[in-house]
Write a structure and sequence with these properties.
five-stranded antiparallel sheet, globular
């Protein structure tokens, strides 16, 4: 299986909702609510893997972060590690933005 096929199968196996599919099947976008206020989305094509998260807090403030990696850089046998690292990165970025705990270098 290719990296793209692994990720598509992962999304199907874990009940992600297919949000959008290009007419030629080149781009797939999946999403899944992890809670009432947290939406994880994964987009995969022949060239790119995109992972993002949207968080809606109690004041209805929206926080959104995403990251993209060329799929050619992902070794097929390590696709799960890359995916989990990307999810970790976007969760950390949103947490930093929501809490102002992010690294801010002194000017």
């Amino acid at each position: 299986m290719t990296t793209k096929e692994h990720i598509i199968q992962y999304c199907k196996d874990h009940n992600f909702k297919l949000r959008e599919e290009d007419f030629d099947g080149s781009i797939y976008q999946y999403s899944k609510y992890l809670s009432k206020t947290i939406l994880l989305f994964i987009g995969v094509s022949d060239t790119m893997l995109n992972v993002g998260i949207i968080v809606l807090d109690t004041q209805q403030q929206v926080y959104k972060k995403d990251t993209t990696l060329p799929i050619s850089l992902i070794e097929p046998s390590y696709w799960r590690l890359h995916l989990s690292t990307m999810v970790h990165d976007v969760v950390a970025a949103v947490f930093d933005e929501m809490t102002n705990l992010g690294f801010k270098p002194k000017k």
